[in-house]
Amino acid sequence: MLPEETFAGQVAVITGGGTGIGFGIAEMLGRHGARVVLAGRNPEHVHPAAERLQAEGISAIGVPTDVRQPDQVDQLMQQAQAQFGGLHLLVNAAAGNFTVDADRLSVNGFNAVVASVLHGTFYCTRAAGLAMMAAGHGGSIVSLVASYAWMGGPKNLHSAVAKAGVVTLTRTLAVEWAAKGIRVNAVCPGPTDTEGARSGLWPDDASAARLLAKIPRGRFGTVEEVANAAGYLLSPYADFITGEVLVIDGGEWLGKGLSS
Ligand code: HXC
Asked: What confidence score (pLDDT) does residue 256 get?
């Protein structure tokens, strides 16, 4: 457990912050003192999500943003700084995905996912990093990835290649930006119990059982577990950690490698 005031005085932008794991990370950062900016494509998600945090006493705003649009991303970072007076933390949680055989994946489908996951992460990381450098106080960045970034992802070609790019971006910027005081890390959740995962990944008991059988720990992860891992990497307690990908999957990906 991080001390309550871990992020006091810090401003965090969380893309994909209106729902699921992104919201969970925003809530955790807010409960530990950060002022949070929830960015997401859908105003019907980010505004009510910000109100939920405000009701908890957290300073929060929602900023509708399509991370595929670099102009909107630049405006997001400017708005965060104008509203809260700085920008210290970035969480890249925005993503888009669907399951499809590669031979049925259209050019538009590939582009839509790569634009959200890889290009969006680059636009946000670039804009936030430049703001942190200009302010001279450094910062900390965490992106969400998935183990198919290095395992390969049948029926997820588009997302797998995009997440692989995010891993490489993480490791590259970790080195380039270390001397500027900016740490760049990633968290890699396995199947995590969110509303989106329940409806998309295990809509019925049979599909849940099939998935659970592949997780050595025998259960799904929780949003809180992923949020705590992200919080640790973002915090000063991880000051000597950069370029790391922290896997929170109950042993799932190692289990795949060892199964026949
Ligand atoms: C095949 C599909 C499709 C599907 C969309 N497309 N859904 N093809 N099967 N289920 C194709 C469309 O046909 C179209 O190509 C192209 O993708 C763009 O679709 P649009 O709907 O026009 O675009 P857009 O509104 O931008 O949609 C983007 C999206 C969408 C990524 C496709 O699903 C989205 O925004 N999702 C956000 C929510 C989400 O997916 N969250 C999950 C993130 S989890 P054509 O050729 O027809 O024009 C995650 C990690 C998972 O990413 C990790 C699991 C372990």
From this structure: 83
Which distant-in-sequence residues (6+ apart) come within 8 Å of 191 by Cβ?
A: 197, 201, 202, 211, 215, 220, 221, 249, 252
Q: Which CATH architecture has domain 11-191+222-249?
A: 3-Layer(aba) Sandwich (3.40)
Provide the pLDDT for residue 257.
72
Active site residues: 148
What pLDDT is recorded for position 13?
99
pLDDT of amino acid 1? 84
Probe residue for ligand 1, chosen from 46, 98, 199 as the CB with the greatest number of ligand atoms within 8 Å: 98
Long-range contact list for 50-53, CB < 8 A, 24+ apart?
53/26, 53/27
Which one, of 146, 92, 83, lies nearest residue 124 by Cα? 92
CA 226 vs. chain centroid, Å, equals 10
**H helical segments located in 56-156:** 70-84, 107-114, 120-135, 148-151
- Cα 195–45–22 angle (5° rounding)? 60
Tokens 């636009």 identify what position? 123
Cα 244 vs. chain centroid, distance in angstroms? 14
Q: Which stretches of the chain drop beneath a pLDDT of 50?
A: 260
Q: What is the pTM of this model?
A: 0.96
For residues 105, 71, 30, 93, the Cα torsion angle rounded to the nearest 10 degrees is: 10
pLDDT digit string (tens) for 71-106?
999 999 999 999 999 999 999 999 999 999 999 999
* All residues at 6 or more sequence positions from 178 whose CB lies less than 8 Å from its CB, including other chains: 242
Structural domain spans, the chain:
11-191+222-249
Residue 234 CA to ligand 1 centre (angstroms)? 29
How confident is the model at residue 236, as a pLDDT?
A: 98
